[in-house]
Amino acid sequence: MIGRLNHLAIVVPDLAAAAANYSDILGATVTAPIELPDHGVTTIFVELPNTKIELLHPLGENSPVAKFLEKNPDGGMHHVCYEVDEIYSARDKLVASGARILGDGEPRTGAHGKPVLFLHPKDFCGTLLEIEQV
C-alpha cells in the first residue's frame, strides 16, 4: 500500500537558522518558507536527490508543534511521510486493519497541495506517520 518515502519532518526552534545549516553547511537546496495555517506550521523543504527533509516551525498559538518544542526545546524528529496512490482507499484499509487516523479522518491539503492524513504513533512503533496521495 505505501509507496516511496516522501519526506522526514524535523521540528526546529529557529527555521531560518535550520535552513541556513542545510544550505550553507551541507550545501542542500532549500525552499522558501510556506505557511500552513490549517496545520499550524511554517515549513521549509530541503530537497535531496532521493527524498526531502521538511523543517517545521510553529505557526500560531495553537500549533501542535509548539507543544513538541516545549518538550524538546532543541527540536527533533517529528514524522515520516509515505506516498500512497489513493488516500481514501489507503485510509479505509488502514482503519479496517485497526490503525487510528488522527483528526476527523478526512484528508486535509498538505504542503505539496495534495491530500494528507496522519496516523497515530502508538500504532506504528512510536512514530507519527503521514500518508500523502501522489
Structural features, described:
The protein has helices at residues 15-25, 64-71, 87-96; strands spanning 5-11, 29-30, 34-36, 41-47, 52-58, 76-84, 108-109, 115-119, 128-133. The chain is an alpha+beta fold and 134 residues long. The protein has a single domain (5-133), classed as 2,3-Dihydroxybiphenyl 1,2-Dioxygenase, domain 1, CATH 3.10.180.10. Strands 1, 2, 3, 4, 5, 6, 7, 8 and 9 form a nine-stranded mixed sheet that branches. β8 and β9 (128-133) form a beta hairpin.
Strand and helix map with partners:
Blueprint: E1 5-11, H1 15-25, E2 29-30, E3 34-36, E4 41-47, E5 52-58, H2 64-71, E6 76-84, H3 87-96, E7 108-109, E8 115-119, E9 128-133
Parallel strand pairs: 1-5, 6-9
Antiparallel strand pairs: 1-6, 2-4, 3-4, 4-5, 7-8, 8-9
Largest sheet: 9 strands, mixed
Please compute the radius of gyration using only Cα atoms. 15 Å
- pLDDT averaged over residues: 96
CATH superfamily: 2,3-Dihydroxybiphenyl 1,2-Dioxygenase, domain 1
Under the CATH scheme, which class?
Alpha Beta
Question: Count of DSSP helices?
Answer: 3
Distance between the termini: 12 Å
The tally of strands reads 9
CATH architecture: Roll
What proportion of the residues is helical, as a percent range?
A: 10-25%
CATH topology: 2,3-Dihydroxybiphenyl 1,2-Dioxygenase, domain 1
Sum up the overall morphology in one term. globular
SS-based structural class? alpha+beta
Descriptive tags:
single chain, 134 residues, alpha+beta, 2,3-Dihydroxybiphenyl 1,2-Dioxygenase, domain 1, nine-stranded mixed sheet, 9 strands, globular
